[in-house]
Please model this.
Amino acid sequence: MSCNDSCTTCAQPPRWQRESHPDFDSVFSMLRQDGLLESDRDRPIIGVCNTWNEVVPGHLHLRDLAEQVKLGIRGVGGVGLEYGCVAPCDGFGNANAGYRYILPMRDNIADSVELMAEAHHFDGMVLLSSCDKSNPGVMMGLARVNRPAIFVGGGAGHNMCPSEILGTAMSMQCLAEALGISLPRTATTFATSPAHRHLSLQAGQQVVELVRRDIIPGDILTREAFENALRVNMAIGGSYNTFIHLPGVAYNAGVTITAEDFDRLSDSTPYLCHIGPNGPCRLGQLDQVGGIPAVMKVLAPLLHLDVMTVTGRTLGENLEQVEIPWDRLPHPDVLRPLDNPITPTGGLSLLKGNLAPQGAVIRSGGVLPSMLQFEGPARVFDSEYDAMAAVARRDYQAGEVLVIRNEGIVGGPGMPEQSCVGWTLDRQGMYDKVYLVTDGRYSGACHGPLVGLVTPEAVKGGPIAVVQSGDVIRIDVTQKRINVLLSDEEIQRRLATWQAPEPRVKRGFLARYVREVVPALEGGYLP
Model:
């Protein structure tokens, strides 16, 4: 049955037909073989990019959510065509060579989104994802393609995948809401609940409205929107890896976000939500008080409220409907008012000093007060495997700074996580006795005295390359400093005789990746 003449959605032929297909009859004849009807000829075609697969536990429910999205699209006069996209599971790569491929797959996902969207000229897109690299990957692709689009995150869960803590997966889902490219409450709603299925159906309906009104990501992903997301990130104490992913999304949107932007906004953004792994609360509890919209309601005096969102309304208009049940909080630290924060500055900190001239990152919201200042001798490891073996047999001392190098985005290659070393230290009860410092990175599920993303990395000649066991390292989180107690002259003397190690991978995708990738604290993307 075709739409009647008063149907506003189908009153005009979709843009991809009108502008890009002089031989539209041939194209539509192929779509008819997909099962489309003649009455679908003038309906907007929505590409439904689904990262569902049987490898990633956190993606198993995305097939059901995609069906809801397509129902929503069809119900308001559009046609949804679903396609698959690769997505990795970080857990498969932990502490083995597979982890070298996990972060680079983010850019491969973004490329896949672009290639399918441009090759098939979709009018709009809905992108479904749930996990650590697929979330920022599809967000980067959404920004790059720049046609009407909505991101549907997989939601929160009570089990490991999806999780109820602010790992990288949930941090990026929350920040998608903060950026305005997801419908409100999508991130914190329970993954397999009827409410989340309904949000997915709404996303399908709303993307057709975005096509009708020609609202594109470029209208939403502005400099002001990214500043809003950075403030939300600091208020909730998001993952270490947001320092890589937000600049990557911004680059694809034509916006420059730097580590200094994180640092600047952290100084003026209070830490409001003590959610795991930093604290005792869970995302389900945050959802009870209103989710990310409630966080943004508290932050409203610090936010740009006139930015556009995928609701078709501004952020300020969205927040008018939000009420916070202050008298019924499930935990006093799940959300604090602006004048009574957990700490007056954000839950992530950028450290600088002669060990990390361009910066390093610590999740300050999850560091014990006794570890905010620390000084001790270095014990240096040239690989994750050497460090893991030593820590497993407790071949280190309390009071030391364990340094893992050559695991950066080029040196790794691919910047594998050093999480297993951190988690082992935690299980051994050493989070109040030692620090771990690396040019690699950590899982968003990590917290504690863990400094990552040391930049420049070792293989690029950063000072971490010439630190020796026994050198004293001083870390001051409150002052945001990290230094090795050596003179500039001594560091330069050592660097003058230093030689970069041979690449660990010399062919294939990773060899190509390291030739082009930008430094991690610039976004770690392929330009």
